[in-house]
């Protein structure tokens, strides 16, 4: 998480209809987000104060809310997002807005309680979004032991955090996950492979988050006439892979230098490949529009 400029609390946050100093923004211990991780989140980037792919992020949030039957009209967030950027005086800067919606406060039950008002939290924070194309990172590979609905951007991220913590503690940038040898995605990023100048990424479905940046990169491939396959890749195919890169809202497009599993090197390169670089440059142009 070295891309986050300052690991401090935001000064102000929006909680359930009002902007408060963060130290005064508190929720009930019976909030189902706290008790069960029963909530969803989104992270929407802004470049020079201007949101990037905002509607795509809000549509994914709407999809997730429908899937878990949380009744909240996402369009109500639109003015709050604009306020979030101006409240923290990031109008001309790069950053992101974090949105979290939990089912709300109710006596603890192992089913969805009725007539509960969702808890809404929004805040903006600065992110160093420039310079990602100069970085080249090492990643760890481990078994994907998350649940089978990774398409829902749920706040219950204990498996993601546990798997990524192993990478961070051992000096890696990210943990890449596999199910029975099939590479799915990163703990907090999507993954792409280049083989013989053609690009591969895991198809959408229940095993990956439908990454907004992933989709933007797929569209860029099409625009640049780079053949793109939404097909999974297995660990034992990594020896045939020419380039690997990660994508995500704050990750953007990050070249991968090495992939290590159980101490064995599965992939290693000296510098980012040509297709990675082309996509990075096209992405920079897109975010500057
Ligand atoms: N993470 N896969 C997972 C599991 C993720 O958590 C993320 C994003 C991605 C990339 O998706 P997108 O391009 O929409 O950011 C893929 C966010 C940023 C986070 O958890 O903070």
TrEMBL record:
Signal peptide segment: none
GO molecular function terms listed in the Swiss-Prot or TrEMBL record: transaminase activity
GO cellular component, one term: cytosol
UniProt key word Signal: no
Cofactor(s) needed: pyridoxal 5'-phosphate
GO biological process, one term: carboxylic acid biosynthetic process
InterPro entries according to UniProt: Aminotrans_IV, Aminotransferase-like, BCAT-like_C, BCAT-like_N, Class-IV_PLP-Dep_Aminotrnsfr
The keyword Metal-binding is annotated on this UniProt entry: no
Keyword vocabulary terms for this entry: Aminotransferase, Pyridoxal phosphate, Transferase
Entry similarity comment: Belongs to the class-IV pyridoxal-phosphate-dependent aminotransferase family.
Protein name: Class IV aminotransferase
Source organism (scientific name): Zhouia amylolytica AD3
